[in-house]
Amino acid sequence: MAETIAKNYFIELKYTGYANNEIFDSNIENDMKKLNPNSKPIKTIIAVGQEMVVKGLDKALEGKELEKEYETVLSPKESFGERNKNLIKTIPLKAFTEKKVNPYPGLVLTLDDIMVKIIAVSGGRVIVDFNNPLSGKEIKYKFTILRKVIDEKEKIEALFLVFLKFIPDYEIKENIIIKGPKAFEILIKTFSEKFKELLGKSLVLEEVKQEDKTKKSKETKEEKVENKESHEKKEDHEHHNHDHSNEHK
User: Fold this and answer.
1) Which of 19, 18, 24 has the alpha carbon at shortest distance from 36?
2) For 20-93, where are the E strands, in sequence order?
């Protein structure tokens, strides 16, 4: 019997999301190009059951087999939520003009790290919709679980990208040693338990001060210069010997 996917399994996922039968998201190249011809697919690795994708899609992954295409239809509650009239707000026009933004109905922009839509502009006021553009809509996903991810490094880096949005300098020992400034402590306190739950290893900070990084960078540059000079001297020496040899012919 084929292996099925369970909660906390790490998987590589291919998917395309549809709203009103139109693609709004994908990591499949042919579908992505319908959104943006220049788009390039990025590998998506997640831990199942951890809501690293839309809640309803995450739930639909459990019990599925590898390399089979599936389709699931999600209600607003299972995907991007119902529309909330309290998220339609009036903002002074000045707040936009100060940032050199000329708002007009239908404009979609990012405000305070949230995607918003301008509903209307009247006098000195702008009516703004803070609802997710996909809220209130039935969502369909087509998806395939390509493989179960076993490699520890792949798992760690997938979690870094989901939780931290970047991959820090790190080392795998009994725990996962993150090398960085003291400011990383808050990230480690926030996510260490989740890493322990999913990987059996906590996050530990190995503080690297700015002067240490600068010194290391300087030493690396000096080492490169020395290697270059050594290489050039060697070439000069070989060239000299070659000329000298030709003189005796």
Assistant:
1) 24
2) 22-26, 45-47, 69-74, 88-92
Would you list the domain boundaries of the chain?
A: 1-82+135-150, 85-129
* 214 burial type by CB count under 10 A (0-12 exposed, 13-18 middle, 19+ buried): exposed
Residue 90 pLDDT > 60: yes
CA 197 to CA 7: how far, in whole Å? 12
Which among 26, 50, 1, 3 is positioned nearest to 150, based on CA atoms? 3
Name, in order, each residue with C-beta under 8 angstroms of 157's C-beta and a sequence gap of 6 or more.
167
Q: How confident is the model at residue 238 (pLDDT cuts 50, 70, 90)?
A: low
* CA nearest neighbour of 233 among 241, 221, 243: 241
Report DSSP letters for 104-117, one per residue.
Answer: -TT-EEEETTEEEE
- Fold annotation for 1-82+135-150: Chitinase A; domain 3 (3.10.50)
Distance from C-alpha of 233 to C-alpha of 224, rounded to nearest angstrom: 14
CA 188, CA 191: separation in Å to the nearest integer?
Answer: 5
Q: Which residues contact 11 (CB under 8 A, 6 or more apart)?
A: 5, 45, 46, 48, 61, 145, 146, 147, 148, 149
Which stretches within the chain are classed as H helix? Answer: 29-35, 55-61, 94-97, 152-163, 185-199, 210-247
What would the pLDDT profile of 168-227 be if each residue is shown by its tens digit?
999 999 999 999 999 999 999 999 999 999 999 999 999 998 665 555 555 555 565 566
CATH fold group of domain 85-129: Thrombin, subunit H (2.40.10)
Mean pLDDT of 121-137: 94
DSSP 230: H
